């Protein structure tokens, strides 16, 4: 019998598999995707957020535990478990040598990459290279991997894992790690969770999925129905405002529109609805998908002028360009009079300051609701650009409740041989909000714990059976 069955094929699954292998367990991974699409959302990633007390290889200055914790506390509005969050933060300071050992290479953050040189370690070759490196290492250590193997249910006995089913095939193991992502790719579940708004719309029908199509939440639902303790609100997710022209799945990072803080954003009625300059973009980009989801028609438009060009990572597709603001309104099919009223009110409210996009500067609006509290400069220099935005779901936060052992719990009782990692439990740390790179920090920390614990449970049972 296999010692550790790992369900999933992304970062959390691979970290779990590698730790279990290092501990001497035999490992089988079941990945829903075909080989060419392996790696889930992890293949789309670029970096992980790392605590450090002094400069470390690719990271400049320091990013101490307390600052990381305060950042997390701020974005989640307190909807986080401090003990588990601190566990993740501390683990993020020591995981990179282990990642390197398994073939991951790091590089400094690119210039213009959203002020992340201090806080985030970038993977050379991105998440795809990370997934490939981990697979190479896992296979060298003897892991077996099966693709096109979506698990649809488990056999559980009194809180113990017994077997997993891929269709009619029953696969037994001594212990199991669930790392099968959230339910972001399950559009019916998203529709259900978001329901209908006051205007009679189904907002989720207009969501795009930034990553894999394989995270359908099948096992998450199975586990919740089987009585596993869960945590989180099904409407909470990492949601980015992305290019409305992005494909339904797997558009990845190149569909991001990163100029929001340099201009204004209006909705379909040509009205502003949120402070575009509230904080640095890496601390705010993940709330904009949700904000757009709350607008009529679930669409919004990021408006900039020539002054912003060159100050943000340009999107893949060019924006709608116009030589005047009324022309831009017409090109975006927005009510021209209302658009001009919004832009004129904004431009008139901008107070002169020393513009500096690398800090929270003093360029603010006065007497405007909602205000723009940093980087507020009149939008008056042609040419003007507009980008239509849609909510892009990255990953959902509803998950299974854990403690620091990563064990799945039933009525507060920890399972002896069933563990969970990654998006399937990220909601313990992320009740809402997001700060760039913390998804991989959570998956790496808990993937490693889950793999270690699963190997311990399996080896103990193996010894027991042999005795
Ligand atoms: C475009 C994009 C960019 C991102 N950038 C970053 C970043 O730079 N830094 C960061 O920290 N986070 C980033 N994230 C978030 C990050 O991807 C996730 O936090 C992290 O990858 C989650 O890892 P995971 O292993 O839990 O899930 P995934 O990597 O999604 O893996 C889930 C795996 O489970 C498999 N699976 C699903 N259901 C089943 C089933 N029933 N049976 C078997 N297998 C199943 C899937 O095929 C997949 O292999 C990004 C996400 C996206 C979409």
From TrEMBL:
All copies of the FAD-dependent oxidoreductase 2 FAD-binding domain together span 3-429
Q: Does the keyword Oxidoreductase apply?
A: yes
Q: Name the Pfam families for this protein.
A: FAD_binding_2
Q: Which InterPro entries match?
A: CobZ, FAD-dep_OxRdtase_2_FAD-bd, FAD-oxidoreductase_2, FAD/NAD-bd_sf, Succ_DH/fumarate_Rdtase_cat_sf
Q: Tell me the leader sequence span.
A: none
What GO molecular functions are on record for this protein? oxidoreductase activity
Q: What is this protein called?
A: Tricarballylate dehydrogenase
Q: Which organism is it from?
A: Caballeronia hypogeia
């Amino acid at each position: 019998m296999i010692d550790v069955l790992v369900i999933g094929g992304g970062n959390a699954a691979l970290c779990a598999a590698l730790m279990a292998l290092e501990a001497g367990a035999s490992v089988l991974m079941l990945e829903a995707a075909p080989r060419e699409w392996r790696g889930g959302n992890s293949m789309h990633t670029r970096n992980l957020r790392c605590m450090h007390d002094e400069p470390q290889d690719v990271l400049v200055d320091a990013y101490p535990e307390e600052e990381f914790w305060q950042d997390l506390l701020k974005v989640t509005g307190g909807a986080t478990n401090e003990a588990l969050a601190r566990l993740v933060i501390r683990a993020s300071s020591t995981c990179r040598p282990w990642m390197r050992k398994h073939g991951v290479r790091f590089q400094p953050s690119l210039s213009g990459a959203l002020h992340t040189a201090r806080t985030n370690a970038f993977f050379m070759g991105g998440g795809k290279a990370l997934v490939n490196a981990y697979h190479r290492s896992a296979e060298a250590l003897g892991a077996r991997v099966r693709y096109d193997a979506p698990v649809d249910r488990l056999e559980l006995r009194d809180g113990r894992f017994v077997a997993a089913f891929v269709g009619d095939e029953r696969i037994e193991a001594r212990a199991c790690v669930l790392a099968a992502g959230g339910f972001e790719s399950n559009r019916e579940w998203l529709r259900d969770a978001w329901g209908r708004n006051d205007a009679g719309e189904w907002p989720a029908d207009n969501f795009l999925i930034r990553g894999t199509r394989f995270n359908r939440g099948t096992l998450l639902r199975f586990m919740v129905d089987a009585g596993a303790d869960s945590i989180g609100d099904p409407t909470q997710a990492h949601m980015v405002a992305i290019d409305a022209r992005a494909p339904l799945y797997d558009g990845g990072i190149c569909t991001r529109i990163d100029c929001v803080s340099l201009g204004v954003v209006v909705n379909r009625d040509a009205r502003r609805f949120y402070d575009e300059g509230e904080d640095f973009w890496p601390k705010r980009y993940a709330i904009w998908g949700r904000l757009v989801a709350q607008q009529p028609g679930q669409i919004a438009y990021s408006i900039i002028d020539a002054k912003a060009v060159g100050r943000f990572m340009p999107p893949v597709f060019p924006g709608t360009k116009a030589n005047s603001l009324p022309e831009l309104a017409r090109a975006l099919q927005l009510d021209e009079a209302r658009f001009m009223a919004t832009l004129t009110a904004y431009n008139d409210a901008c107070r002169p300051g020393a513009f500096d996009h690398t800090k929270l500067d003093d360029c603010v609006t006065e007497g405007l609701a909602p205000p723009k509290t940093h980087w507020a400069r009149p939008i008056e220099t042609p040419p003007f650009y507009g980008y239509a935005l849609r909510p892009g779901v990255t990953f959902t936060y509803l998950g299974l409740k854990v403690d620091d052992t990563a064990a799945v719990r039933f009525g507060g009782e920890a399972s002896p041989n069933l563990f969970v990692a990654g998006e399937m439990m990220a909601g313990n740390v992320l009740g809402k909000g997001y700060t760039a790179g913390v998804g991989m920090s959570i998956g790496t920390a808990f993937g490693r714990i889950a793999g270690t614990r699963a190997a311990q449970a399996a080896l103990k049972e193996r010894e027991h059976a042999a005795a």
